[in-house]
Amino acid sequence: MKRAAITVTGIGLATPAGLGTKTTWQRLLEGRPTAARDPELDGLPVDFSCRVPDDDLAQALGRGLRWRTDRFTQLALVAAREAVADAGLYPEEWDGDRVGVVIGVGGSSFDHNHEIIKAAQGQFRAVMPSLAPRTHPSAATGEVSLDLAARGPSLCASTACASGATALGVAKLLLETGTCDIAIAGGAESVRNAVGSVAFWRLGALSERIAAPHEASRPFDADRDGFVLAEGAGVLVLEREDDARARCARRYATLAGYGSTADAYHCVAPHPDGDGAARAIATALADADLSPGDVDHVNTHGTSIPLNDLAEARALRRVFPLPPPVTATKSILGHAVGGAGAIEAACSVLTLHHQTIHPTANVTNLDPRIDLDVVTGAPRHSDIGTVVSNSFGFGGHNAVLVFCRP
Amino acid sequence: MHSQSLHEQLATVLCQHFELDREKVTPEASLDDLELDSLALAELLLIIEESTGARFPATIEGIGPQTTLAQAAEILTTYLVDEQDTPKPAGGTAEVADTDLAVG
C-alpha cells in the first residue's frame, strides 16, 4: 500500500535567538552564538546558558497563563501558535477532533526548586498546588491542545535529547495511518536552570568554558569540551500532501522519512562507532525510499560533547561513502534537549526552503579524527533537495528525520 | 486586617500573579466570572496565606464559583481574625513545622 506523503505547512520557533522563525533563521545565518552569562546561574560551576529573552516570551505568551505553566510549556505554546498561523490555519474553523498534538519533552521541569525544598523541609502545605501538573513533560502537549482547541490524539514523546525529532516522527505515523488530519508536532524544553546546570555539569557533559561562553559550543572542533545548556521550542504543522494541496497551503517541505533505533549499548555514552545512529539514518532513508547518495546536507545532532561528536562523525562515515556538507545548529542555539530535535528539524526545513545551509560557529580547528565538510564562516548556498536531521539522546535513543524539497 | 484591605490584596494578586485585567477584577465579579477554578483558588489562597500568615482549611465553607470577590474577602477575613487571636509561637524555634508558612 502506498503511504500518503506528509508535508510541512507551518513552522514555529522560540529559541535563544528570540521568538519567531525569522529571528532564529537570521541569527543562524549570522553564525553568532547565543550563549551568555545567565543571572539565574550566578555562583554555579557553569554559570552561562543560551536563554530565551524573558520579556519576549512573556509578551508573546500573553497574559493569564504563566501562573500555571512552566517555561517549557510557554515556549511550546508560543511556537505552536506561530506554526498554526504560519500554516494559514484557524483553530476557530478547523475540526478540532481531527487535529493531533505531539510535543517531545525530555524530562520533568525544574523551574521550581523552591517547592521541592519546601516539601523536603516538611512545609507540605506551602507547596504550590499546581506543582504536579505543570512540571510533567506532558503539560506542554496538554496546554497546546487546550490553547488551540485541538481535540484529536495527544501525546508527549520522551526520548531524552531526541524527543523533538521523535515527536515529529510519531506525528508522521499518525497522519499516515489517518489517525488525524493535522498534526501540531515538535519539541520543547527549558533546562537552563540551576538544577539542570548542576546535574549536567556533574554528569561531565557541560562545557566549562566560563571565561568565554560564546566560544563554548564548538561541535566537531578539536577543542570542544561539552555542550551548552539552552531552552527553546520548535513546532511544525504537518498534513497529508493531498489535504495541503486541496486547501492551497504553502508546502515548505516533505517529511519523507523517519528512523528510530536504540543503541542498547550504555545508559549514557553513545556507541563508539555510532552504530545505532547509523542504523537510524539508514532506516529513515529507507522509509523515504532514498539512498545515501540522494542526501545533500545533514543537520547534525552535533552537541560539542567530545565522545558524541566523534561517534556521530563515524556514523555518517558508515552511512555515506562521501558525507554531504553538514552543520551544527547547537553551535549557535545551544542544546535545548527535548526541544533541540524539533528546532533542528525546523532549521532543516528552512534550509530546503531557502536553499541555504547556515554556518557552524566556533569551528576554528576541526578535530583531525572528524573527516566531515562542516559549513563554517558564512552561509552556503547550494542546490539542496534532501536534508537529513539527526537527533541522538542519552540512553541510546536515535531519531532521524528526512526532509525533501516539496 | 479588615475585609477592605484583604479585598485589595486579592485584587493585587489576581492582577499581578494571575495576570487578570484590572477592570475585570471588581468586588462584584464572581470567581466564575474571573475564570478562577479550584486549582487557581488553591494557588490564590496559598499566596494569601504566605503574605498574611493565616491558615485556611482545605475547603472553605461558603466559597464557590458564584462567590463574589467581596464575599470571598469577607469570609477569608474571618480566618485572619482567628489567626490574630491565636498567640503566635515564639520565634527562633528549631523545629520546621508544616504551619511555618511565612518562610517563602
Could you say which structural class the secondary elements and strand pairing of chain B correspond to? mainly alpha
Q: Give the helices and strands of chain B as they follow along the chain.
A: HHH
| Beta strands of chain A, count | 15
Q: Report the principal-axis shape of chain A.
A: globular
Approximate helicity band of chain A: 25-40%
The count of helical stretches of chain A stands at 13
**How many strands, what sense, and barrel or not for the largest sheet of chain B?**
none
Query: How many runs of DSSP E, i.e. beta strands of chain B?
Result: 0
Question: How confident overall, as mean pLDDT of chain B?
Answer: 80
Subunit arrangement of the protein: heterodimer
Rounded to the nearest angstrom, the radius of gyration of chain B is 14 Å
User: Which segments of chain B are poorly predicted (pLDDT under 50) over 5 or more consecutive residues?
Assistant: 87-104
Radius of gyration of chain A: 20 Å
What gap, in angstroms, lies between the N and C termini of chain B?
21 Å
SS-derived structural category of chain A = alpha/beta
SSE order of chain A, one letter for each helix or strand: EEHEEHHEHHHEHEHEHEHEHEHHEEEE
Strand share of the residues of chain B?
under 5%
Measured as a percent range, the helix fraction of chain B is: 40-55%
Q: Biggest interface in this structure?
A: A-B, 17 and 21 residues
State which percent range the strand residues of chain A make up.
15-25%
